[in-house]
Amino acid sequence: MAPWGELLAGVRGVLLDISGVLYDSGAGGGTAIAGSVEAVARLKRSQLKVRFCTNESQKSRVELVGQLQRLGFDISEGEVTAPAPAACQILKERALRPHLLIHDGVRSEFDQIDTSNPNCVVIADAGESFSYQNMNSAFQVLMELENPVLISLGKGRYYKETSGLMLDVGPYMKALEYACGIKAEVVGKPSPEFFKSALQAIGVEAHQAVMIGDDIVGDVGGAQRCGMRALQVRTGKFRPSDEHHPEVKADGYVDNLAEAVDLLLQHVDK
Amino acid sequence: MAPWGELLAGVRGVLLDISGVLYDSGAGGGTAIAGSVEAVARLKRSQLKVRFCTNESQKSRVELVGQLQRLGFDISEGEVTAPAPAACQILKERALRPHLLIHDGVRSEFDQIDTSNPNCVVIADAGESFSYQNMNSAFQVLMELENPVLISLGKGRYYKETSGLMLDVGPYMKALEYACGIKAEVVGKPSPEFFKSALQAIGVEAHQAVMIGDDIVGDVGGAQRCGMRALQVRTGKFRPSDEHHPEVKADGYVDNLAEAVDLLLQHVDK
């Protein structure tokens, strides 16, 4: 690994994953990861631009931000790039009327969307709502369409709750892809459009930005393919084998967000 | 397509898929497909060897055969090759103790299997038991294992019930494969070992046998890869697009089992 000073030269903006980096979700609103509340505050007091870039699709941004604020984080809805609003824009642009296979917590993000007589399926991290019956309904909608369109909010394999690893939307997306013989369109990380919209919101170019996440493929690999640098934290869903991933190598590995912010504030151009 | 006489020359044995060929499963035990009860009876009166080769994994063989007998079919448990007994043999041979993600209807097939302290997962067509919680438990077992083993009873995409198309085990197998970054071992069609064990039971060589099924990939493609001939019926999950499948071409297409048996009895060597 190159020295940190070299690795972080020219960084002007930081994209932060939320789950597994700021906090571990779970019963009772989850728990902040040690040092992360202060790390976010220090980052926001610095000259660096900060944007939160999440694949959270169980909760609306309002609910997510409220939960994080209660844990002590300095964060507001306008600072968050999340897949549900991005999906709504695509649905409107292409006149798509979705059958929604989503968690009730995120339903309010789709309030303005026409869901009558569906001509596509939108799948998100539905958690307990991934029942056989709900999966089968989405499958049947897709099989009835001449050109089946499946939009997936992220394609994460799993995430970490305080109680353990939990299946994310990705496995269920794969299930519908296989059942119908189709390929889903992913809205959220690691889609390049999604990273770009987060960068655009803070006016930072990809080569001036660093992504910090716990997902070696979705966060690190995705950001690197967009021309960003990327650090993986050893919190959240991180597993030691990630540091020897066959396809993705992070620009750096840090114990947690606090260490990442220490390094950033030490080494980026003053 | 070559003339039927040429196509069916030298056939000595017939493998019959059950669901979608003999009957459509569904509420109240399902319904026999028109002409199939008589077709099976005629086939069994002929000089041809007959074996039923199913991926049914929701019901035990006892229950399946009982249901078919009530619909009028001449069939007994000893004539059926099914994936659950084949899986039990593998589990015993390899000292595997499964976590079972299966339908309650097939649980009795695993009565003799040690399921304590699991070192693998067996997934079958669990239907309504494919809840998020059950999927997540299987996922967590696999993630805890150093060498995760996933055994899937078939890998069908979907099947047809009287009420419509229903997701089969395949999509859920794909979900766990993706979540854990592993490849499942499939027991059942289209696995060559499975077809071979069905042929062995009737003492017929692959080149002397014809498979009759409604699944262009699992039945037709699988049997052909074993050196058998294969006919697709236009019942069950058959869809017109199957006749232009990009990878698999049946040796012949027939409207239903009755037509297949007509042709067999007309054209095979007396």
Automatic annotation (TrEMBL), chains A, B:
Residue ranges the record marks as coiled coil: none
Reaction(s) this enzyme catalyzes, per UniProt: diphosphate + H2O = 2 phosphate + H(+)
EC nos: 3.6.1.1
Assigned GO CC terms: cytosol; nucleus
GO MF terms held by the record: inorganic diphosphate phosphatase activity; metal ion binding; phosphatase activity
Keyword Nucleus: yes
Keywords attached to this entry: Cytoplasm, Hydrolase, Magnesium, Metal-binding, Nucleus
The keyword Nucleus belongs to this UniProt entry's keyword annotation: yes
Compartments where found: Cytoplasm; Nucleus
Top EC category: hydrolase
Cofactor: Mg(2+)
NCBIfam families for this protein: HAD-SF-IIA, HAD-SF-IIA-hyp3
PANTHER family per UniProt: 4-NITROPHENYLPHOSPHATASE-RELATED, PHOSPHOLYSINE PHOSPHOHISTIDINE INORGANIC PYROPHOSPHATE PHOSPHATASE
Protein role: Phosphatase that hydrolyzes imidodiphosphate, 3-phosphohistidine and 6-phospholysine. Has broad substrate specificity and can also hydrolyze inorganic diphosphate, but with lower efficiency.
Family: Belongs to the HAD-like hydrolase superfamily.
Protein name from the UniProt record: Phospholysine phosphohistidine inorganic pyrophosphate phosphatase
